[in-house]
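Quick one:
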Amino acid sequence: MTLKNITRWGAVSQAFHWTIVLLLLVVAVVGLTMGELPRTPKYFWVYTAHKSIGLTILALALLRLGWRLYAGAPPPVAGTPRLQAMVASVTHWALYALIFAMPLSGWLYDSASGLRPFRWFGLAEVPKLSPPNEGLADLANDAHETMFWVLVLLVAAHAGAALYHHIFQRDDTLRRMLPGRRARG
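Output:
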C-alpha cells in the first residue's frame, strides 16, 4: 500500500480519516449528553474531555489537510459523472471547513465565557482566544451548535453517498478509503 493518494486513499490519509471519524463520534455523543449531567466533579471532567477531544480533532484536521496538500487526492472512480465528482469535492471541502470551525467556535466560546483556564487533557493550559465577553460567548455557542447539526447532515450525506456507490453503483469509491481493501476484480 502506498502512502500517497494515487488511485486510492493511502494509509496516512485513511488513518487520519478514520481517527477523526471516531473522535467526532465520541465528541458528539459527549456533547449531546453532557448538558444533562448533574453539576458534580464528573461534570467538569466530561466538559474538559469534550473540549480536549475537540482541540485534538482540530490538530489532526490541520495535519490531515497538510498531508492532503502534499499527497493529493485520488481522481474520482472511472465513470463518475462530472457533476457528481464536483458535488463530492464541494462536500469534502465543506466537511474540512466544519471540522476546523467546530473546535474553533467551541474554543472561542470557552474563552469568551470567562471560565477558568482550560487544560488540554489536564496537561497543558490552552490560551484564551478572547477576554470574557458574554455577547461573543453566546454567538460562539450558537454557531457551535448550528455547525454541529450542519456537520451531522453533511456526514450523513457523505456516508450515504459512499454506501450508494458501494451497494448500487458497485464501484470502488468506498473501498478506496477502507484499509487493506483492493479494487474489485
